[in-house]
Write a structure and sequence with these properties.
This protein is an alpha/beta fold. The protein has 11 helices and 11 strands. Helix 1 crosses helix 2, helix 1 crosses helix 4 and helix 2 crosses helix 3. Keywords: DNA-binding, Transcription, Transcription regulation.
């Protein structure tokens, strides 16, 4: 039995909807249903009456809910006590962030914070979007930084998980230059000579962004699969070696663009702007994070939006 099954069950009891509870728990509805079924198998009884709409708790489910809420409450209270004893010193942050953000954005951002608040000690955990969300939801970080596009939202409860836009990045199609300093591989390609595509995995956030970009294009580019990874740094290395065309965040390749070792391989129609957002759990009180959040919100208001990540 896993504690997340109990948390799923409590969410379902609160929302009385598989779809809404699954969205709150940041899991697909099919995956959420499987976890509820696994809990019922462990208990040895049906906890949910699926014959009614909305679904209701059975008598066994009502009994189990009382104990489940008490146990989970005690577990989280105990965890809070332990964490308060082991909390990082003042002006310290535990940050979950995507690999590209951790490499390209956070070092400069943290230097800026230190210039304003004095030394800021940070423990940065580079990870994928899914695991970053789990760290935030499970209370394992003070801040989560991730990319965002309005058509590819993160399923977080906005009343609990506040966000601020701290930057805007652009996914650009890039290629190694040819002898005339133009792109070695230029979009859109042709059916006779499709371009080698160094791509993201379909389930990665950037992979979904590129798929969205293609869906909005007037005509799909002529590409052939060459290599796949969920890390932009891997795609960048292969693009530098001339292995194909790749869509990379501008913030991660500004040095290469300035040096001419990578060049843009298509017009603006092949680019996609994405926000860079900072998230926090508003139910967790932390004096330094509260102060930092007020300053970030003021900066965002003063600049009438976030700056481009140059």
């Amino acid at each position: 039995m896993e504690i997340k099954w109990i948390e799923d069950f409590i969410a379902l009891a609160q929302y009385k909807s598989f779809s809404r509870a699954a969205e709150f728990r940041n899991v697909t509805q099919s995956g959420f249903s499987r976890r509820i079924q696994s809990l019922e198998q462990w208990v040895g009884a049906d906890l949910i009456d699926r014959s009614s709409f909305p679904p209701t708790l059975t008598a066994s489910g009502q009994l189990f809910r009382e104990t489940a809420e008490e146990i989970v409450g005690k577990l989280f209270d105990t965890r809070a006590i332990i964490r308060s004893e082991k909390r990082m010193p003042d002006k310290a942050l535990q940050i979950a962030a995507g690999h590209t953000i951790a490499l390209s954005f956070l070092p400069g951002w943290l230097r800026t914070l230190s210039g304003r608040f004095g030394e800021v000690r940070a423990r940065v955990v580079p990870t994928n979007v899914h695991d970053s969300i789990l760290m935030l939801v499970n209370g394992n970080c003070e801040l989560m930084l991730s990319y965002h596009h309005p058509e590819l939202p993160l399923h977080l409860d906005p009343t609990r998980y506040q966000h601020l836009t701290v930057g805007v990045d652009t996914l650009l199609p890039v290629s190694r230059p040819n002898a005339k300093s133009g792109p070695l591989f230029r979009l859109p390609g042709t059916q006779e000579r499709p371009l080698p595509h160094i791509s993201y995995t379909d389930t990665s956030y950037f992979g979904r962004c590129v798929a969205l970009l293609f869906s909005k294009a007037g005509a799909a580019p002529a590409l052939r699969f060459h290599y796949e990874s969920d890390m932009a740094e891997v795609l960048k290395k292969l693009a530098l070696e001339g292995d194909g065309i790749a869509w990379l965040p501008k913030s991660s390749i500004r040095t290469e663009l300035e040096a001419g070792t990578l060049v843009v391989a298509g017009g603006s129609a092949w680019s996609l702007d994405v926000e860079l957002r900072a998230y926090r759990d508003a139910t967790v009180r932390n004096d330094f994070v509260d102060t930092l959040w007020r300053h970030l919100r003021a900066d965002t208001a003063d600049s009438d939006g976030a700056a481009m990540l140059e």
